[in-house]
Design a protein that fits this description.
Elements (H helix, E strand, L loop, with lengths): L20 E4 L1 E2 L3 E5 L8 E4 L9 E6 L10 E11 L6 E8 L3 E8 L11 E7 L4 E6 L9 E9 L7 E11 L4 E7 L3 E6 L3 E3 L4 E6 L2 E7 L5 E4 L5 E3 L4 E4 L3 E9 L2 E2 L4 E6 L19 E5 L17 E9 L2 E15 L12 E7 L10 E7 L12 E7 L13 E6 L12 E8 L4 E9 L1
Parallel strand pairs: 14-23
Antiparallel strand pairs: 1-2, 1-12, 3-6, 4-5, 5-12, 6-11, 7-10, 7-12, 8-9, 8-11, 9-17, 13-16, 15-20, 16-17, 18-21, 19-20, 21-22, 21-23, 24-32, 25-26, 26-31, 26-32, 27-30, 27-32, 28-29, 28-31
């Protein structure tokens, strides 16, 4: 029995199919169409009455925006077994449309999983006449095991729906593609240690039979280099991470060709953080309506960063105490609109804040309270609001590097003439990094 066993070390890895056919009268071998979420699910059909060659073509019905079955047409042709496309130069197809229109996005490398590494796409001007289109592959060597062979996405042109036909969709070796000109978006990032960013604007332009064709390509097609990895590193997916104080210049290549554009990353020290929690509140819980505090039972808050605001918020801990950390704060909407607060018996508003940012003039920290009025509904004609502006010269005063307790009489919010349905708290201004704790109303 021992002599009959197989030696697996002698086996070669299985090769992936190199078949380049996507659609010739019918789907290529092992291909399925996966419609994009939110698209018109029945937008794609095989049409035997209109074709460039053979017996049928693909027809895509681009809907009007109000179509109840979907506001756009889009999806991907996905292979059940990955294809080896390294031997090809381009995706090609013949296409025409029922009206002169612009196809918003067409390409390959998208398998509709949300994890595709090598999508590449362009837009196309379509006409009512059958025309051959050549879509260059940014770097064929990357497509060794690709499942996403062809995809498109398009909405109505100026509100008008129309039809697109595709035929003879395949990958080909094309000798008329020359002069690769890759590029990345040139930018300067001023960040702190620990920050991350992604290289933007990765694309490549080719001369295709005398006409330029620009492909939007994911960063994974490129090879990135950091001039100073001690300051900033960059991954194969174009993720930049600030790791130390200093300056690094991120450059890129597409294969052996240098990409135009660089990303300059200036990394500064991470800002200081509070090491001690905010003072524990001493108000009697019976006299408090708490929005956020470990010392009390909180009422329901819909969001600490509303969709309309301009800020980032994270839940962090300071010495075991739960805290809200606002960064990039321009203004933040804190909403409790589904269960408004009856604050008619309350006399004060309290918030503890800690910031590493300068608070000397002209820095201002603003707090606005909004009441939805008797009807309890936003913009019902009886809403009231008022905003207080705090500086390093007000009482209370904002300060840098220490917890500041803001105890604000509701009487100072003079425009807040009703408090039976308080529904919004908005903080804004500068400083732009603020730790927030113990947010409550009390009497």
């Amino acid at each position: 029995n021992t002599g009959c066993s197989r030696d697996l070390n002698t086996l070669e890895p299985a090769e992936f199919p190199t078949d380049g056919v996507v659609f010739f009268d019918t789907f290529g071998a092992g291909l399925n169409f996966a419609a994009f979420a939110g698209s018109k699910l029945d937008a794609l059909d095989i049409d035997a009455s209109e074709r460039f060659r053979g017996s049928a073509a693909l027809r895509v019905t681009v809907p009007v925006p109000t179509d109840p079955s979907g506001s756009f047409a889009g999806g991907a042709f996905v292979a059940s077994v990955p294809r080896d496309l390294t031997g090809y130069h381009a995706l090609t197809f013949w296409a025409r449309s029922s009206i002169a229109a612009t196809l918003a996005e067409v390409g390959f490398g998208n398998d509709n999983t949300g994890t595709s590494r090598f999508p590449a796409s362009t837009s196309l001007a379509l006409s009512t006449t059958w025309t051959k289109y050549i879509i260059p592959i940014p770097l064929s060597e990357k497509l060794e095991t690709e499942r996403g062979l062809f995809y498109f996405a398009d909405g109505a042109d100026d509100g008008v729906g129309y039809d697109i036909w595709f035929d003879e969709v395949q990958f080909e070796r094309v000798g008329t593609i020359i002069n690769s000109r890759p590029e990345i978006a040139a930018q300067t990032l001023n960040v702190q240690v620990g920050a991350t960013a992604t290289v933007q604007g990765t694309r490549v332009t080719f001369d295709v039979a005398g006409t330029d064709r620009t492909m939007n390509a994911t960063p994974a097609y490129f090879t990135f280099t950091s001039s100073n990895p001690a300051a900033a590193t960059v991954s194969e997916k174009g993720l930049i991470e600030a790791v130390g104080v200093g300056t690094s210049v991120i450059s890129a290549k597409l294969g052996s060709v240098d990409a135009a554009g660089t990303v300059t990353v200036n990394v500064g020290e991470a800002p200081p953080e509070p090491t001690e929690p905010a003072p524990t509140p001493t108000q009697d819980a019976a006299n408090v309506i708490s929005l956020f505090s470990n010392a009390y039972t909180d009422v329901f808050v819909d969001t600490w960063s509303a969709g309309f605001d301009d800020a980032d918020v994270a839940d962090v801990q300071v010495a075991g105490d739960d805290v809200k950390l606002y960064t990039n704060l321009v203004f933040a909407g804190i909403e409790f609109t589904s269960q408004t607060v009856d604050a008619t018996a309350m006399t004060h508003f309290h918030m503890d804040i800690w910031t590493p940012d300068p608070t000397a003039a002209p820095a201002e920290f603003k707090i606005k309270l909004v009441d939805f009025g008797a009807d309890g509904a936003f913009d019902g004609g009886d809403d009231t609001e008022h905003e207080l502006v705090l500086t390093d010269a007000t009482m209370p005063a904002i300060a840098t590097g220490s917890w500041v307790g803001l105890d604000l009489p509701l009487a100072d919010f003079t425009g807040l003439t009703t408090t039976g349905h308080v529904a919004q708290l908005i903080i804004s201004g500068s400083p732009n990094t603020v730790y927030v704790d113990n947010v409550y109303l009390y009497k």
